[in-house]
Design the sequence.
């Protein structure tokens, strides 16, 4: 099984290893599962999640693949790069979720990007349980040296506190 290249993917170390690119409202917060008006997580071992607020909250990690021990030759062979993320809403407030993952060259220029349309969860029409988003990059050409993983969102009612989307269990893996 390939190792997860993201550090602190579920908030066990609060916000360590994450660059807070947007930190609106009451800012990012780490909470314990399942949280107020929340759902239990479907994977063993995940006990925390990151919660967003009433203005946009985004956080990012940029992974240096050479520092992680991959060689230029391994990376130029275009190994499959798989990204996964889990998100959910509260049962009492709607929220939006978004993510952007970019494969970057040595100058941190984008080689390929995965940016699905933002998702809005409405507790009146959705159970707001944990949902997974996954994507595998392939045939992206040579030059991969960094991966940028960014995700987050906010609530839809602008309520004071942490009523926005919740994220956890994020991963970036490379099959070499």
Sequence:
């Amino acid at each position: 099984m390939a190792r997860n290249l993201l550090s602190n993917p579920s908030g066990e170390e609060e916000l360590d290893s994450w660059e807070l690119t947007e930190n609106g409202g009451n800012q990012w917060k780490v909470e314990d599962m399942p949280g107020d008006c929340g759902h239990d997580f479907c994977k063993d071992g995940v006990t925390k999640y990151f919660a967003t607020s009433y203005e946009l909250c985004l956080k990012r990690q940029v992974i240096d693949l050479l520092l992680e021990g991959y060689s230029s030759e391994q990376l130029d062979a275009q190994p499959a790069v798989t990204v996964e993320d889990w998100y959910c809403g509260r049962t009492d407030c709607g929220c939006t979720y978004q993510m952007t993952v970019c494969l970057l060259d040595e100058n941190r220029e984008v080689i390929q990007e995965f940016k699905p349309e933002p998702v809005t969860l409405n507790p009146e029409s959705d159970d707001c349980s944990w949902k997974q988003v996954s994507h595998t990059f392939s045939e992206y050409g040579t030059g991969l040296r960094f991966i940028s993983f960014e995700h987050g969102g906010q609530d839809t009612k602008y309520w004071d506190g942490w009523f926005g989307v919740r994220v956890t269990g994020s991963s970036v893996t490379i099959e070499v």
Q: What stands out?
A: Residues 72-76 form the longest helix (5 residues). The helical segments are 72-76. The chain has a mean pLDDT of 95.
